[in-house]
Amino acid sequence: MAVKNSSNALKVLFVTTELAPFSKVGGLGDVAGSLPKALSQAGVDVRVVTPAWPGVLEKLEAAGVKATTVKSKVYAAYDWRIHFANVIKADVNGVTTYFLNSEDYAGDMYPAQLNFWTASPFAVFCMQALELKDAINWTPDIYHCHDWTSAFLPCALAWHRHYRQTGGKSIMTLHNVAYQGVFEPYPFLDASGLEPWSFNSSTMEFYGQVNLLKGGIVAATAVSTVSPTYASEIQTYESTRELSGILYQQRSKLRGIINGLDTKFWDPNGDKSIPAKFNARDLKGKAACKKALLQRAGLDPETDAPVIVCVSRLVEQKGFDMVFNAAGQIAETGAKLLILGSGQDWIENGIAHAADMYPNSIKLFKGYDEPLSHLLYAGGDIFLMPSVFEPCGLSQMISMRYGTVPVAREVGGLRDTVFDVDRPEGGNGFTFLTCDVDGMMWALRRAVDRYNHDKDAWKNIMLEGMREDFTWDKSAGLYKEMYEDLTQ
Ligand code: ADP
Ligand code: GLC
Fold first, then answer.
1. Rounded to the nearest whole angstrom, what is the distance from the C-alpha of residue 312 to the centroid of ligand 1?
2. Using one digit for the tens of pLDDT, what is the confidence trace for 168-201?
3. d(CA 16, ligand 2 centre) in Å
């Protein structure tokens, strides 16, 4: 039985700029919204701190979560003034969570252009997170930071005039090394209070710029990333270019721990956003979900054709140029392709153009739509994820929970979670290695053929995915081990 918050439990503060369901952009939000609960059940005294971005407190209220304002404010001395924030405390899913509310977090969550001004809220947030202990009378043993947006915290513990005297251990978890927080060093170096000597090529300097993620990696007590395969890929030049040297140099403190899911939230048997529920023993509801999805897409709801779905940020990482370049070939298979996502213009436009050319086969739902994403996961037959790189990927796991068979590239966390059914030992999906249209179509055609011609085999593949263990249990144990290794 887990010891919840016993007095000698390890104290860990999760420092995150995304938190599902209040401020989620992608998988980081999902992880921050579900891992702390699993850690808490594993006996870690974990709390979360996150900015109250615009709309977050309203969502908190709408969700009926009771929140109180902590008596003391937190502050950060930055850019020659004191930045105060109110601390709003709430119990989110059994985890004590602090939302920092101030004008520093009144702008867009992720700025389109990074410079001193737009990077400042992230530095302020990290300093306020370091000050939180006095306001709440609870001192963490470990600060667990995520991605470049909280990477200033380990930097501050190592190189800030004041914070380097205070001590404290930190973990830097890399959800995506492609986003590094790079911008001009001036006036940041003076304004942030970092020691002048701390800016050099073996710390946070990067071709004359500040690179917060590089600093965080070097300064953190330990580093983790979100799958074992990505942990080895990021040490190679092909994967992370100029940062690979640092990651290789720091490899002794790096580990890869695969993400889990909030399996209660992502559950086809309890999901309130889908028209019919189903589970591995009774799949009938899935057919109703498929009908509803086809109807929503304006396609024939009675079609026998396999429905390929994608739910994704439409950015280079996700490989959608392959998808729109293969539009004709996909349409020729007879399958329907439904894509939900938003992101870079050239990718949105490429897909929109493909949808215009093949209106009976391809449909783009442009935007971010949580309930619709559930309908796609539930109503699809095949989930397509042709990522160029993928640190972990949650969508392929969610789709498997909903009996939607993944077709995925063998890269990063996809390689650790999707296994080709045509291996001698069998598997839960269809995979391909080469990052091109031919590779993707080779796997996709095999999936479509199997769906069309071997219904029994198809059902077995679906069930294989639905029975996978995507809970956080095992990985929470590995994080706990990492915390213990750091504090012994
Ligand atoms: P990443 O974090 O790189 O975006 P992941 O697969 O780890 O990729 O996580 C993506 C998460 O964001 C999943 O929960 C997915 O359902 C969700 N998501 C992505 N795009 C959309 C969208 N347009 N609408 C709703 N949810 C989305
Ligand atoms: C990032 C990665 C994704 C991963 C997620 C959560 O956004 O792109 O692969 O699943 O973080 O760790």
1. 5
2. 999 999 999 999 999 999 999 999 999 989 899 9
3. 14
Kindly state if the Cβ of 485 falls inside 6 Å of ligand 1. Answer: no
Q: Report the alpha-carbon distance of residue 229 to residue 392 in Å, rounded.
A: 9
326-332 own/partner pairs: CB under 8 Å, 24+ apart: 326/437, 326/440, 326/441, 326/444, 327/354, 327/357, 327/358, 327/362, 328/357, 328/358, 329/437, 329/441, 330/358, 330/361, 330/362, 330/441, 330/444, 331/358, 331/360, 331/361, 331/362
CA of 309 to the centre of ligand 1 (A): 13
* Per-residue pLDDT band at 3 (split at 50, 70, 90): very low
Give the total number of structural domains in the chain. Answer: 2
Q: Specify the DSSP element, H or E, that contains 474.
A: helix 473-487
Q: Based on the domain organization, do 234 and 362 belong to the same domain? A: no
134: exposed, middle or buried (Cβ count in 10 Å: 0-12, 13-18, 19+): exposed
Q: Ligand 2 site: residues with CB under 6 angstroms? A: 26-28, 31, 175-176, 226, 259, 390-394, 413
The residue-averaged pLDDT of 231-249 equals: 92
CA of 164 to the centre of ligand 2 (A): 30
Distance 31 CA to ligand 2 centre (A): 9
Task: State if residue 312 touches ligand 1 by the CB under 6 angstroms criterion.
Answer: yes
Ligand nearest to the CA of 376: 1
Residues 92 and 229 in one domain: yes
Q: Tens digit of pLDDT for each residue in 396-439?
A: 999 999 999 999 999 999 999 999 999 999 999 999 999 999 99
**CATH number of residue 154's parent domain:** 3.40.50.2000
313 domain residue, yes or no:
yes
Based on the domain organization, do 447 and 477 belong to the same domain?
A: no
Q: What is the pLDDT of residues 253-288, one digit of tens each?
A: 999 999 999 999 999 999 999 999 999 999 999 999
| Same structural domain, 386 and 476 | no
On the question of pLDDT at 483 being above 70, the answer is yes
pTM exceeding the 0.70 threshold for the entire prediction: yes
Ligand 1 atom nearest to CA at 20? 14
Kindly state the percentage of the chain with pLDDT values over 90: 95
Closest residue by CA, ligand 2 atom 6: 27
> Do residues 163 and 130 touch, judged by C-beta distance below 8 A?
yes
Name the residue with the closest Cα to ligand 1, atom 20: 312
Residue 340 in contact with ligand 1 by CB distance below 6 A: yes
- Domain membership of residue 27 (yes or no) is yes
The answer as to whether 269 is a domain residue is no
Residue-range definition of the domain harbouring residue 366: 284-466
Whether 457 and 476 map to the same domain: the answer is no
Q: How far is the CA of 393 from the centre of ligand 2 (A)?
A: 5
Amino acid type, 323: V
Q: Are 473 and 38 in contact (CB under 8 A)?
A: yes
Residues 166 and 182 in one domain: yes
